[in-house]
User: What shape does this take?
Amino acid sequence: MSWRSEAIEIYGWTAHPRDPSVLLEGKKNLKAPQPLKVDDIELPDTQLAKEVLEYAKRELREETFNHSMRVYYYGRAIQRQHFPSWAVTPETYLLACLLHDIGTTDKKISATLMSFEFYGGMIALDLLNKELKAPIEQAEAVAEAVIRHQDLGTSGTITELGVLIQLATIFDNMGDHADLVHKETIKDVVKRYPRKKWSSCFAATIRKENTLKPWAHTTVLGEEDFPSGVEGNRLMEPYD
Assistant: This one.
């Protein structure tokens, strides 16, 4: 295998349909999910993973950090149980999860006129490659996933890393694709990383971004439909 082919595989560059219904073959899920506990799912302990984990803890408010960790565990459960052939490494996926909302902090959301996902992608690229010396192919994969994690739709393709984080974020934020993760898995993940009224917290962040930047990419999801959908997350309501 060439270095390029290996990088595409392990860093999650493999192209997949952007349309979740195509990925799921028109079904609610590809198999009945089985219960998993947080301790059943490996948390990478490489030096790079540890440094980004500490960075995220410093930079993100607790509610956002907990969301990022829930996205990691839900996504890994989805990958293991529905897409076991996907080769993106747990480390790369963890980096994307920890950094996908880095642009939403109070300081960063006001520091730029760019949409938070695009600015966050730039931050992720600089942090991973320039500061922490991650391979450029890995840093760019994470940056692209951060930029495109709200690029929901039904046309074209997206990277493996990108579509996995999309599935996990909309699961946690809106309760979409509720049949991908077992309810016992949700309970254990939320026990470890409580939501702390995440639905109202994130809805407020969306509205803040749209007020500060009425051109923001977030508006493509519906200026009021999106935050209202987050607040109306029935799947996660019992845990908020």
